[in-house]
Amino acid sequence: MSKVIVTGGAGFIGSHVVDILIENQHKVLIIDNLSSGKRQNLNPKADFVEMDICSEQIDTIFRDFRPEFVAHLAAQIDVRKSVTDPIFDAKVNILGGINLLNSAVKYGVKKLIFSSTGGAIYGETDVLPVPETYLPKPMSPYGTSKLAFEHYLGLYQRLHGLKYLILRLPNVYGPRQSPEGEAGVCSILTGLMLKGNKPVLYGYGTPQRDYVFVKDIARAFLYGLEKGENETVNLGSARGTTVREIFDIIANTVGYHEEPQLAPLRPGEVQTIYITGDKAREILDWSPQTDLKSGLIQTVEFIRNN
Ligand code: NAD
Asked: How many other C-beta atoms are found inside a 10 Å radius of the C-beta of residue 214?
């Protein structure tokens, strides 16, 4: 049993990370300001502090709880918002992160596991699937703030000996992702089709992404408590799927028979990105287990019932 702080534990991915940690008998404290997270996502067996990761009070939380591990998922996650308000994005994703790092060092945390992004960090690449060794050239302030914090993790390791594991996530989908948000195409399309509204497919439906089911992603955080020291690891399926393919699977599941509206890509979005998973297999003994169709059926079921 380990004591773990999960930031962003009321959010989509963070809440699944909390669930799997609790299922495996770990003691969890969630820090979340509920800006996009929801109370109903909170695991009742976890402690919860409603707080901004930028707050000076973070120190007190670490002092009292004495975590051995931190899974850091709290973030400003909206790519388009990061383009219109890069300062807010950097405050949360860089300064908020450094605030956690300072407390982690001060109270002797063994390792910090960071949810970085494979989808937004690499930019438009000439190699697919993109490996961890590819030089990142983000196309948005969001991808840049995530990359900057990765560098701070390397720095705090060299400067203070704090261990880290960087998980570069693909396009994560599944239950609890908001159909109302700006991110999460699977939930957004499902929400629209269930209401009988016509979805818009940006990039004319052709952009390819790497879709991995949220419970598979959560498992990597669990494995990360024991494996992967000062490593950067892609959690990809190494497979690209077009938005049109996603649309078709969901339309079939929901029983939606209209054609979608097609539109050009928006600023900050890349055309094609999918990332490797072989280093994750090697280092964490992790690979995605849920196939796209059954993952999407679970996503549709969740949105239908909520
Ligand atoms: P989410 O919005 O559901 O979760 C983020 C959580 O962080 C929310 O509960 C929110 O309330 C909380 N939060 C935001 N700002 C905060 C702050 N200043 N202080 C405290 N809490 C704060 O999003 P998600 O999709 O679950 O993303 C979780 C993490 O995974 C993020 O770090 C994101 O960058 C990363 N990620 C997600 C994806 C994806 O496909 N969803 C892909 C790559 C990386």
From this structure: 23
**Tokens 């952009």 map to which residue?**
207
Cα separation, 47 vs 65, in Å, equals: 10
- Give the containing element (helix H, strand E) for 5: strand 3-7
Q: Is 126 buried (19+), middle (13-18) or exposed (0-12) by CB count in 10 A? A: exposed
Pocket around ligand 1: residues whose beta carbon is below 6 Å from it?
8, 10-14, 32-37, 52-54, 73-77, 92, 96, 115, 117, 119, 169, 171-172, 183
Report yes or no: 118 and 169 within 8 Å, Cβ to Cβ: yes
What token pair was written down for 260? Answer: 């979608």
> How many Å is the maximal CA-CA distance in the chain?
58
| CA 110–ligand 1 middle distance (angstroms) | 22
Which tens digit of pLDDT belongs to each residue from 70-113? 999 999 999 889 999 999 999 999 999 999 999 999 999 999 99
Determine the Cα–Cα distance for residues 189 and 250; give it in Å rounded to an integer: 8
Q: How many alpha carbons lie under 13 Å from residue 108 in its C-beta half-sphere?
A: 5
DSSP 88-148: HHHIIIIIIHHHHHHHHHHTT-SEEEEEEESTTTS-S-SSSSBPTTS----SSHHHHHHHH
Q: Which residues are catalytic?
A: 142
Q: What percent of the chain has pLDDT over 70?
A: 99
